[in-house]
Design a protein that fits this description.
The structure holds two protein chains of two kinds. Chain A is mainly beta. Chain A has strands at about 5, 10-15, 20-25, 30-35, 45-50, 55, 70, 75-80, 90-95, 105, 110-115. Chain A contains no helices and eleven strands. In chain A, the strands form two sheets. In chain A, strands 2, 4, 5, 6, 9, 10 and 11 form a seven-stranded mixed beta sheet that branches. A four-stranded antiparallel beta sheet of chain A has the order 1-3-8-7, with no helix packed on it. In chain A, strand 5 and strand 6 (about 55) form a beta hairpin. In chain B, the strands form two sheets. In chain B, strands 2, 4, 5, 9, 10 and 11 form a six-stranded mixed beta sheet that branches. A five-stranded antiparallel beta sheet of chain B has the order 1-3-8-7-6, with no helix packed on it. In chain B, strand 9 and strand 10 (about 100-105) form a beta hairpin. Chain B has strands at about 5, 10-15, 20-25, 30-40, 45-50, 55-60, 60-65, 70-75, 85-95, 100-105, 105-110. Chain B is mainly β. Classes of the chains: A mainly beta, B mainly beta. The interface of A and B includes residues 43, 48, 103 and 104 of A.
Amino acid sequence: SAVISQKPSRDICQRGTSLTIQCQVDSQVTMMFWYRQQPGQSLTLIATANQGSEATYESGFVIDKFPISRPNLTFSTLTVSNMSPEDSSIYLCSDSSGGITDTQYFGPGTRLTVL
Amino acid sequence: SQKIEQNSEALNIQEGKTATLTCNYTNYSPAYLQWYRQDPGRGPVFLLLIRENEKEKRKERLKVTFDTTLKQSLFHITASQPADSATYLCALAVDSSASKIIFGSGTRLSIRP
């Protein structure tokens, strides 16, 4: 399995600002995904990061709020734009060698607090 | 509406006993079901995958069952240890060509010495 790192591990941000989270995998992977995990809640898929093309967003998530980049097979970023306290959450990236139904390996997460 | 539920938010058992966690779903026909472990401040770690045509899967002290008639999966940890204390998540792949996994909210398991 690939080893996944995320930066930053945590941040405290002011309302109205934006934060970009980086996800680095130590080997080339087919699929990368971004999830949100709100306190005491399950993981919710935000989008699938597609290499070389626009991300595929799930219902309730839009590109203007959560722009995603995936310039190559080992790296992706998620930006949380124009933040509000409701965006306070843990953001996780994951990868899979197969499709999303295959086993996924998760990064350690980025804990975001918006004041 | 489609739902996946893990019946216990928290489970507290004595070391050495078998822990049994439940995952129920409605309005899905999952091709796969997975169980993950999540420790505080960390991302989920994959444990086991069971397919719709499999009734049971084992890995060391772990056992997973999958009953598509009852729409339920049971996750067992035998001879439980304090180190098994964590949150356990079940996750469904809706069908063989599905584009997403749905996670349950998790059960926080505590094993007391």
